[in-house]
Amino acid sequence: MPAFFAIVAGKDEYLVDRDARAFYDKAKAAAGADAEAEVISGAMIRVEDARPIEIQFSESVKTLSMFGGKRVIWLRNFNWVSDSKQAKSLAVKESLENILQVATEASDEVSIIISATPYDGRRKDLTELKKVADEFVVHASAAKGFFDKTDPQADLQEDLAVNHLKSLGVKFERGVPEAIIGRVGQSTRLVLGECEKLATYVGVGGTIKETDVLLLVPTFGEGDFFEPVEALAMRDLKWSLAALDRYFFNEDSSRPLLAALQNRLRLLIQIRCLVDSGDFRVTEAGLPKGQFETASGRHGPTFGSAAKSSANLFSQNSWYISNKVAPMAARYSLAELVDLQLACGACFDAANRGQDEVAVRAMTMRALAVRRSP
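-> structure tokens emitted (374 positions)
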């Protein structure tokens, strides 16, 4: 067995690389100043790349130092246990088996770190080595949706964003870290990069607002946070029209936007009903702390299954409902929310005729032009 054997895997390249580097530095320190350290790229583009990487790694592990010192080897960016066609090929699987065998049979003068990303959790190639590895870390996949707290990585990303913003010497409104994650939540590296961009924008000592996030941070990957929805929630006509300009500059279809708005409206209608019945006291700051949990205990069974759905208010994250969704319920009556929900359906029909932008703009103008009493 090697002197030290660490495996770090996950879908988030930043987190995997961060932890693997920490183990690499730890192993080098333990091996002493005379140790030889080597980083081998395990990134495979074609199936044909697997064999040369296997040979390079095997030779490095088995080659003894000329001066009798110890060796530290980091097989970095190892993408052989992903869901790609290349990783599933027979040739790559054979080379993978050989690499792992060489790693586990290495001399105790050698320390080995393997960082695997992207990582398919269904693969058992690495998990079989969990018992023999000194360190075995598998990072959860990135959050699946906006403010999805069912995945621990969402909390981890939020903590990293908060700490990074503080280290950059800026202040920020309460919902800024969550808003950033909602835009780029599939990548921790992007989250931290956007924190730096926003900090540069406001300057040291400045305050980052949620509107700054909406203006400056584009939606990446599977981000589903749409600026026009937030502008409509604020009843801000000027911002809403500008947000629609930006949205339709990048998008041809209104369907993703309408789907996001309908999901929000389904929750708002439920909140507004509870406000009108006296169960909620909502202001433009949202719901008072603890009110959501109290109402959940009282009415949760009435709303049905606990499975997460916009049709069930109490299946949502408490912070998200209390601070992000509820404020809109203070600005709209139940009748206005129902009108908006029906208008979304009409916009879907207009989208079938290729009139997406016109229909959404008309809906926004009607919603914000006149206040309708309950």
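The two ends are 73 Å apart (CA to CA).
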